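Hey, I'm writing a tutorial for new members on how sequence and structure tokens pair up, and I'd like a real worked example in the thread rather than a made-up one. If someone can provide the structure for the chain below, I'll link this post from the tutorial.
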Amino acid sequence: MAPLGARLAGGSTPALDGFGVDSEHGRMRDVLLGDPATFRWLGIENATYSALVRDTLRRGHRFDRERALAQHGEMVGAFRDAGVAVHLLDAREELAYGVYTRDSSVMTPWGAIVCQLANPRRRGEYASCLDFYAGAGIPVYDMVTAATSRAATSRSSRPAPRSSATRASAARRSAPARWAAGSRPRAGTSATRPSMSSTSIST
């Protein structure tokens, strides 16, 4: 089983050979998505926690579940057509928004960081992430426990390139790099976060 809390207290945690990401550019090889089987729109019950929900209610928009599922299927198909291996978190009835894997964890060069979301309706999403990483043999670098954190806002201004090719590639980029949940960089490449509802696992 992959270790929990793989981060070395004194620093110098070794980078992973299998999975890992150091920036948002390059060829994606694996991506982590949520199974949309239990996805549902949390309207008025989620309005306290989401300005987007409040705006949607104000505008009178209605959620079309069949259309949402079809769009998710198209996204999965696009990844697979591009040769990306798609991994799915198990659907859980109590986790309506578990499909948004960009929030619940983030990948680094040293392993995954599992986040704790502020929205009470999403607090349990960490469990699905831990199950996946353990089953996939991907070390969990660390877990957010003393506060809340959302992976979609994670950012690294200094990637950790592993070769002269990646160092040269990183030097040409002026924008800060984001860590998406799981990408495996190869020489001259790095990871891409593909969409707001997915996390890349390897490039």
